[in-house]
Structures are given as structure tokens and as C-alpha cells.
């Protein structure tokens, strides 16, 4: 029971990290109809800048702020210089252009920081553990990640669904020309949305830095999971991003923890490890297939912004 609860919390922590990524990407894809493969690069930029600032200053919180600002600013610059020209182009053009940017960012990171992975040291108040249930300790930082992810999801939902800016965002997704004709600078609005999504990716990067190797190309694997999340949840839906992130995060974590042991019940150790590991890696895609078979537009539909 203790192991299951720990793995469930680990899945929740992975889920909220994916939520930080998916919430920005689903807005960009849903509003701008832009397939942005560079979202993982913004995750990487946040991780690198955050870890560097935290190491120099000795303050992890300062590293978090730096990661958010660096990723947000990088996203704005990238949108203004490159991506703005791709909104009305075919999806294939968007994929090729953003794939080229992935190569650029990966090489830029190697030039600036080198090829060796970076590590971040957590402050003492985040390095301990707390008793989630009497007798069951759990790392404090993982709980902080969950809390930050939940707070960010609530903030984003209120921004999109309960603010004037959110109203303009949703209106721009439905009819860009009409919003522009009514006096809203749709170009600036798109830049703000992209910058917001980039800032969330940067936050996800520094939050994930203590658990993953901060190295060139680190955004590729998380980008794949993020696309699975928004497909499962429904493109453009904030509720879908939340549901999809939690479902995929928990499925992936529990699959990695229990599927190899499950196959050990009737297979030899080496074969069980191979089959169980393969099935664990496949589990999130099996979930995606099941969801799409039942609801082809995802759990909460496409572009519903609800």
C-alpha cells in the first residue's frame, strides 16, 4: 500500500509537470493552429537558465523566476522572428521550420553550456520529506511541484475563462478577422499567448530539473508526452489538458512500476523485464488509442476552451 501511494503521488507529480507543458502547447495549437515542435526547446531553455542562475546565486527560487522569464522572452522573440510567418502556411511547413529550430536550440545549448549534463542543488527546506499519511514519508519537493502545477492550472483557467484577455483569446480562436476588425491587435495577442505558453514550459523545465538530466535534447522526450496529453484531452481545451496530463502521468508511472513485476508472475526474469519494460513504454499510447476510439476528438473535444 505504501509503495502504491508513493507511485501514485509520483504519477501526480509527473502529470502536473506535463500539465505545465500541455497548457501552453494546447493554447498555441488551438488558437493559432500552429504545430510547434519547439515547445520542448523552451522547456530546455527554462531548465538550463534556471539551473545556472540557481547555481550562481545559491537561490532556487531565483532560478525559477529566471527560468520563467528566459523561456517567456525566448518564446516571444522566436514568435516575432520566425513563427509569425508560419500561421497561414501548411502544417508541413510549420513542422519543417520548427524542426529546424530544434536543431538550432540543441546546438546553441551545446555551445553555451557544453555537452556535460547540469545538476541543481535544492535548498534544505525542499530536500526533506513530509508525512503525507502517518508512517508514509514523501519528498517535500515533489509535493511542491504538485502544488505549483495545481496553482498554475487554476491561474491559467481563470485567465482564459474569466478574464477579458481570455475572452479575446477565445474569440481570436473562433474568428481572427472579426476580433482584428473590432480593434484588437491580433498580432500582439498571438505574441502574448505564445509568450505565456513559453513561460509555462520554462516553469516546467526548472521544476523537472532535479529529476532529469539537464542536457541538450532533453525537451524531445517530454514533447512527445505533451502531444499525447493534448490529443487525449482534446486540442484547445484547458480541462482536457488537465485530465490528459493526470491520466498520462499516472499511467506512465504506474506502468513503469508494476508492469515488469506483473510479467514476472509467469515469465523468466530477463524476458519479464524486457516485455514489462516494453509494455510500460507502450501503456500511454494504448490509453491514447482507447480514448480516441471512444472519443475521436479527445476527452473534452477539440477547441472547446472549456
Shape, per Cα inertia axes: globular
Q: How are the strands ordered across the major sheet?
A: 1-2
Range of helix content: over 70%
User: Span between N and C termini?
Assistant: 36 Å
Q: Topology as H/E string?
A: HHHHHEEHHHHHHH
Q: What structural class results from the helix and strand content?
A: mainly alpha
Q: Estimate what percentage of residues fall within beta strands.
A: under 5%
The whole-number mean of residue pLDDT values reads 86
Largest sheet: 2 strands, antiparallel
Multimeric state: single chain
C-alpha-based Rg, rounded: 20 Å
Number of helices: 12
> Low-confidence parts lasting 5 or more residues at pLDDT below 50?
none
Note down, in words, how this protein is organized:
The protein is an all-alpha fold and 306 residues long. It is 75% helix and 3% strand. The protein is built from 12 helices and 2 strands. It has helices spanning 2-32, 39-57, 60-81, 91-113, 124-127, 140-162, 164-174, 176-181, 186-208, 219-233, 238-263, 269-294; strands at residues 129-133, 136-139. Strands 1-2 form a two-stranded antiparallel sheet. Helix 3 runs antiparallel to helix 9. The mean pLDDT is 86.
Write a concise synopsis of the structure shown.
The protein is mainly alpha-helical and 306 residues long.
Descriptors for this entry?
306 residues, mainly alpha, two-stranded antiparallel ribbon, 12 helices, globular
Question: Mind sketching the topology for me?
Answer:
Elements: H1 2-32, H2 39-57, H3 60-81, H4 91-113, H5 124-127, E1 129-133, E2 136-139, H6 140-162, H7 164-174, H8 176-181, H9 186-208, H10 219-233, H11 238-263, H12 269-294
Antiparallel strand pairs: 1-2
Amino acid at each position: 500500500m505504501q509503495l502504491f501511494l508513493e507511485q501514485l503521488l509520483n504519477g501526480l507529480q509527473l502529470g502536473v509537470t506535463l500539465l505545465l507543458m500541455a497548457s501552453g502547447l494546447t493554447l498555441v495549437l488551438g488558437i493559432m493552429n500552429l504545430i510547434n515542435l519547439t515547445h520542448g526547446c523552451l522547456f530546455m531553455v527554462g531548465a538550463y537558465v534556471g539551473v545556472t542562475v540557481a547555481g550562481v546565486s545559491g537561490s532556487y527560487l531565483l532560478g525559477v523566476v529566471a527560468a520563467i522569464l528566459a523561456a517567456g522572452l525566448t518564446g516571444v522573440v522566436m514568435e516575432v522572428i520566425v513563427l509569425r510567418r508560419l500561421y497561414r502556411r501548411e502544417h508541413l511547413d510549420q513542422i519543417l521550420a520548427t524542426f529546424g529550430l530544434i536543431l538550432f536550440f540543441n546546438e546553441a545549448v551545446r555551445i553555451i553550456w557544453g555537452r556535460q549534463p547540469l545538476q541543481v542543488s535544492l535548498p534544505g527546506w525542499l530536500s526533506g520529506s513530509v508525512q503525507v499519511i502517518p508512517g508514509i514519508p514523501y519528498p517535500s519537493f515533489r509535493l511542491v511541484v504538485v502544488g505549483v502545477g495545481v496553482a498554475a492550472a487554476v491561474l491559467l483557467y481563470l485567465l482564459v475563462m474569466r478574464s477579458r484577455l481570455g475572452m479575446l483569446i477565445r474569440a481570436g480562436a473562433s474568428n481572427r478577422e472579426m476580433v482584428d476588425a473590432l480593434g484588437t491587435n491580433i498580432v500582439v495577442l498571438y505574441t502574448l499567448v505564445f509568450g505565456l505558453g513559453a513561460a509555462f514550459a520554462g516553469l516546467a523545465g526548472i521544476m523537472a530539473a532535479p529529476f532529469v538530466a539537464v542536457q541538450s535534447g532533453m525537451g524531445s522526450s517530454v514533447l512527445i508526452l505533451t502531444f499525447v496529453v493534448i490529443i487525449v484531452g482534446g486540442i484547445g481545451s484547458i480541462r482536457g489538458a488537465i485530465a490528459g496530463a493526470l491520466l498520462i502521468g499516472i499511467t506512465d508511472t504506474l506502468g513503469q512500476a508494476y508492469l515488469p513485476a506483473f510479467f514476472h508472475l509467469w515469465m523468466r526474469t530477463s524476458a519479464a523485464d524486457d516485455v514489462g519494460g516494453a509494455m510500460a513504454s507502450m501503456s500511454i499510447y494504448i490509453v491514447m488509442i482507447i480514448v480516441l476510439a471512444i472519443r475521436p476528438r479527445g476527452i473534452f473535444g477539440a477547441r472547446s476552451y472549456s
